[in-house]
Write a structure and sequence with these properties.
Length: 105
């Protein structure tokens, strides 16, 4: 078993770079780097997601709520909640999913 992630960085959308940092069947940690104006399209998934803003500024939408976050902010997105974001200043999000997002592997 390897304890060091060797997953490549990929670009799932314009202006977005994603890299799986670590994973197990029960948990996954993922880095997302955003350029200004890049968006994470509205979507939902069965995983519970925790997001930590390492750098930058983002406008998030979860369900009917919209809010801005910056460095040091964090929040949880419930399972099946429709959510997305818009990058207002270049930055990096660290997302944790439970269980693992097999679609990212």
């Amino acid at each position: 078993m390897s304890y060091v992630s060797t997953y490549p960085e990929v670009s799932p959308d314009r202006g977005v770079r994603r890299q799986v940092l670590s994973d197990s069947p029960e948990l996954m940690v993922v880095s997302f780097r955003f350029e200004t104006g890049a968006a994470g399209a509205l979507h939902s998934h069965p995983h519970v997601q925790s997001t930590y803003v390492e750098a930058g500024r983002f406008r998030f939408t979860i369900g009917d709520d919209a809010f801005e976050v910056g460095p040091g902010d964090s929040f949880v997105i419930p399972s099946e909640a429709e959510h997305g974001c818009l990058c207002l200043e270049p930055g990096r999000l660290i997302d944790t999913f439970t269980p693992r997002r097999d679609d990212f592997l």
